[in-house]
Structure formats: C-alpha cells, structure tokens
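Why should sequence recovery work at all? Because a backbone constrains its sequence more than one might expect. Tight turns favour small or flexible residues, buried strands favour hydrophobic ones, and helices have their own preferences. The token representation captures these environments compactly. In the example below, the structure is given first.
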C-alpha cells in the first residue's frame, strides 16, 4: 500500500500497520501491556490514608509534578508509585561509570555479550536503588502522618512491594521492546505522563472564569513548545567523510573510494541533563521538607519555600534560573562524556575514512571536538529554554492547575517520533519485494 496524498502521514502509517498481521499483533501486544500497567498503577499499598495523601499532593506542587510522571500511581501510592525511574537512574549511573572503570569499559567493547552483561548489572543495581527510594518515600509519608503503621515488618513488606512493582514495570517494558513496537521503558514512562493529562485539563475547565482564556493560551504555548522540541530533536550537523581503501582481487590491487557523512546531533545529550538538573534543584526542597515546621517556622521553611517550582516571584525566578544554568552545564558535561565514548576519530582511522581537508588522528579529533562544542551550545540553550517553559507559561497565562513539564514534553515528543520511525521502518521492510518473495 502506498500513502495517498489526501491522508496525513501518521494516519496512513497506522492504517498500513493494522493491515499487516505481524505489525497488528505487535501493536495489540503493546496496547495490552499498557493496560496491564494502568491496572497495576491502581493497586494501592495497605496502611496508607488516601484522603490525607490527596490533600498532601494538593498542597505540594513538587509531589504533584512527580505524580504526573507516575500516571497518578504516586497519588494513590500504589505498588507502581516509583515507576521505572530507579531503572533509569541505574542506567545513567552505569553510563557514567563505563568510561571510568576499566572492567566496565572492557565489557562495553565485547559487543552483544558485553552489552548483555552491563544490562544485567543495571538490573541488579535497580533493586537497591528502588529499595532506598521506596524507603525514603515511606519515611516521608510517616513524617506527614499519612502512613498508618511504622513497625519493621509492615515497613519491610511495603518496601519489597515497591521494589517488586518497579521490577515488574521494567519487565513489562522489556516485553514491549521485544514483542511490541518502540522502546518499552520509554513507552511505559510516556503512558504514565499521558494518563494524568485529562484530569489536569478537566480541573482547569472546572476552574472556569478567566482560566478558560488562560487555558487557550496555555495550549498554544504547549503546541509551540512541541514544534520547537521536534525541530531540535531532529536537527544535526553533517560532517562529510570519504573512504579510500585498497582491495586485492584477481591478482591485482584495486583502489576503492566512497563518501558518506557523520550526523552529529545538536541535542546529543537528550533529556539526561534535565534529569540531572531537576534532581539537584529539587534536592534542597525535599531535604528541607523533612525539617520544616509550620507551627514554628525555621531555616528549613525558608529553604523549602525557595526551592519550590510553584513559588511566586522572586523565589520562583531563583528556582527556575538555577534550573536553567544547571541544564546548560549538564548538557555540556554529558555530551562530552558520550562523545568521548564514541571515539569517532579512532573509528574513522580504523575504517580508512577521513574528513576532507583534515588530517587523520589528532587533527580530526581537534576538529570534531570543536564542532561538537559549537553545536552543543545550541542544544544546551534549547534544553534550558524548554526547562523553564513551565515557569514562562504559568506567568504568562496564570494557569496553575496544569503543570506543563519540560521533561514530560521531551519524553512524549521523543517517544512518539521514535515509535513512528520504528513503525515506518517495519512498513518499509515489509513493502520490500524481496521480503515478500
């Protein structure tokens, strides 16, 4: 089937995918696993006062933002309250440790077998991270008077339930990757974010009055931000590369040549700088919340007020300004780490490739380092602007019911683009005549 000009590309791709039995089965498996995920997100842990928990989330904007990423599982404090974020944290830690620890660096160079071992280590590291995160959340709820029993055995049972919920979601995500469409872990996060949007939009409509016009402009800002994200996710700088090698054939030496390009992405770091920056800027407020006292205000109350995403000016300007600067810094930091791991100059030299006008070896490395640093400025500023977009949208529209999350929008747009690319690749492969024969 060929896409017709009268149908949008996305709609035509979905129609074509459902017309093929294999792709239809993959899509239905993905949807079925997401339904299972939503059921798990509604299974609450015992001993939690859900009404008091709801009031706590309404008063704390920071918790509301985290709840959006879990698809409401944290607000219900279900077994899936932590989502797959301990696994994401474990993956980031392993990524940073690979160039530092020689044993991990050696594993990364062993091909598929080495990657499988690193993935196994990532899974094992997820368990203690999930346990620590779950225990911290339970201690916080106990401090707020929401958790009923604080005995050792019920606490251990709840921590084990949270760990099991996280590992089950990781397993579901891997089943999507293997038998469904797209990257399973990303799709699980995507589903959690999207699941909370209808309730927030409904709350904004129920607010009524001037909120409706504010909601209209809020949606316009969200759409403009989405276009901005798509443009920069797809942006890259093409570095021309030529190959020249000698081939001995039939007793004679032949010289072969060809040309291609290296696509250096403007946003090489992806959303990782946002995760790092958000973790650092949220940490003081989370710690201060343990020591804040509404009856007798102390220094912890001041720290807690200054490190709140919903804080009014000038405290809000301090929070989001710090978020902006940290995002730029981590974008350069993570891009340089990823670029060093790729080791493009050595790879080109081994494959007989060279950049026209640039000598192989140190000169190529110096040239590529200069290019990646220049385009990273654009990528870092892009991430930083997207990071502070929630603050800009809130101040311009005065809509405070919906929390426009920069990281959430990056995840949603990135997952949709990646999934559609994989679906189109599957369609192209099945349209290929040699595949049908």
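From this structural description, the recovered sequence reads:
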């Amino acid at each position: 089937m060929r896409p017709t000009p009268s149908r949008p590309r996305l709609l035509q791709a979905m129609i074509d995918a459902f017309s093929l039995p294999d792709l239809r089965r993959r899509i239905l498996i993905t949807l079925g696993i997401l339904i299972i995920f939503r059921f798990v997100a509604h299974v609450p842990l015992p001993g939690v006062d859900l009404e008091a928990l709801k009031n706590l989330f309404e008063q704390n904007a920071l918790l509301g933002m985290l709840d959006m990423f879990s698809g409401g599982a944290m607000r219900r404090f279900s077994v899936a309250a932590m989502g797959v974020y301990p696994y994401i944290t474990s993956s980031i830690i392993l990524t940073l440790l690979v160039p530092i620890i020689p044993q991990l660096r050696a594993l990364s160079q062993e091909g598929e077998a080495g990657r499988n071992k690193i993935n196994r280590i990532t899974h094992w590291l997820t368990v203690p991270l999930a346990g620590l995160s779950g225990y911290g959340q339970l201690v916080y709820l106990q401090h707020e008077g929401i958790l009923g029993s604080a005995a050792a055995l019920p606490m251990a049972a709840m921590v084990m339930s949270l760990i099991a919920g996280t590992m089950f979601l990781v397993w579901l995500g891997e089943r999507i990757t293997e038998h469904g469409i797209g990257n399973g872990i990303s799709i699980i996060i995507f589903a959690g974010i999207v699941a909370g949007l209808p309730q927030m939009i409904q709350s904004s409509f129920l607010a009524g009055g001037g909120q409706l016009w504010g909601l209209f402009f809020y949606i316009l800002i969200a759409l403009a931000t989405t276009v901005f994200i798509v443009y920069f996710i797809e942006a890259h700088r093409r570095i021309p590369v030529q190959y020249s090698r000698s081939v001995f054939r039939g007793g004679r030496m032949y010289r072969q040549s060809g040309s291609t390009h290296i696509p250096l992405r403007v946003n090489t770091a992806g959303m990782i700088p946002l995760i790092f920056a958000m973790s650092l800027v949220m940490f003081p407020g989370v710690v201060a919340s343990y020591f804040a006292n509404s009856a007798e205000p102390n220094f912890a109350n001041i720290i807690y007020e200054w490190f709140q995403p919903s804080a009014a000016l000038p405290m809000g300007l301090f929070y989001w300004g710090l978020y902006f600067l940290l995002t730029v810094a981590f974008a350069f930091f993570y891009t340089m780490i990823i670029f060093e791991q790729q080791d493009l100059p050595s790879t080109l030299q081994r494959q007989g490739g060279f950049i026209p006008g640039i000598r192989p070896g140190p000169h190529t490395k110096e040239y590529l380092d200069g290019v990646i640093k220049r385009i990273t400025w654009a990528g870092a500023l892009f991430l930083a602007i997207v990071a502070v977009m929630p603050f800009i949208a809130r101040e311009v529209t005065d809509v405070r019911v919906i929390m426009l999350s920069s990281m959430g929008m990056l995840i949603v747009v990135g997952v949709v683009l990646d999934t559609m690319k994989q679906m189109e690749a599957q369609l192209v492969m099945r349209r290929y005549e040699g595949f049908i024969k």
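A few observations help interpret the result. The longest helix spans residues 362-397.
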